[in-house]
Amino acid sequence: xxxxxxxxxxxxxxxxxxxxxxxxxxxxxxxxxxxxxxxxxxxxxxxxxxxxxxxxxxxxxxxxxxxxxxxxxxxxxxxxxxxxxxxxxxxxxxxxxxxxxxxxxxxxxxxxxxxxxxxxxxxxxxxxxxxxxxxxxxxxxxxxxxxxxxxxx
Length: 153
Description:
5-stranded parallel beta sheet
């Protein structure tokens, strides 16, 4: 499996570089955008496996970036995590309304971020242009049965 590519969209160089360091240390590929417009451009160019975006940024905020990603035919299945220091329940509702897959308040615990990131990457929809192999294992009356199915070409 390819190394997942994570796009960080963050206007604070300190926070972007900290997050980049954490992700690189875990073996992810990382790109950084400094605002929502640049983030959208890089998302369309690289088609990342996941986007982590701040909410409050110049030019285009994280809500709008997320809304555009989720309405873009090529990007709509890309998971989006919104990171922010905003803590009002209305902000969480707004994040969910724009299609965010998760909302994490700053400051965050790296372990919590990685648990959400890992979950979202493992549960991504299978791309429509692939032919997955499905492995099913069933136990019945102390006997193990395995089924492997391949879609017809």
